[in-house]
Amino acid sequence: MDNQWVVMILYFGVFIGIFYVFIIMPRKKQEKKHDNFINEMKRGMKVTTIGGIRGEVARIKDDTIVLKVADNTEIEFIKKAIAYEVNEEK
Questions:
Q1: Helix, strand, coil % (nearest 5) of the chain?
Q2: What is the C-alpha to C-alpha distance for residues 22 and 19, in angstroms, rounded to an integer?
Q3: What global pTM score does this model have?
Q4: Which of 4, 8, 76, 82 is in the most buried spot, having the most CB atoms within 10 Å?
Q5: What is the DSSP letter of 18?
Q6: φ and ψ at 60, to 5 degrees?
Q7: What are phi and psi of 50, to 5 degrees?
Q8: How far apart are CA 17 and CA 14, in angstroms?
């Protein structure tokens, strides 16, 4: 094997390692944190959807969540559509 090939393979390996550390690992960590949040959601929590709709969790079903967004108005979303919990502390 020529010395150029070894250097090229080494550079490629380093590139893949950097790509994994800076892109794949943080994304996996973020997905795990979001999944834990989804599984720990409780009735009465105030949340925001990925579409920007804010509401209070009224009911939790197997793979969906019903949000109360106004008086007598409820909308059903899939669980993955919930982005984060609303913290109204100011």
A1: 45, 30, 25
A2: 5
A3: 0.73
A4: 82
A5: H
A6: -125, 120
A7: -70, -15
A8: 5
Question: Residue 32: what residue type?
Answer: K
Which residues are CB-contacts of 80 (< 8 A; sequence separation ≥ 6)? 38
The identity of residue 83, as a single letter, is A
Cα separations in angstroms, 62 against 39, 40, 73, 76: 11, 13, 21, 12
How far apart CA 40 and CA 65 sit, in angstroms, is 12
Helix (H) / strand (E) containing 78: strand 73-78
From first to last of the 90 residues of the chain, give the pLDDT tens digit.
578 888 999 999 999 999 999 999 999 999 999 999 999 999 999 999 999 999 999 999 989 999 999 999 999 999 999 999 998 765
Q: What is the C-alpha separation between 6 and 2, in angstroms, rounded? A: 7
53 vs 2, 8, 46, CA distance in Å? 60, 50, 11
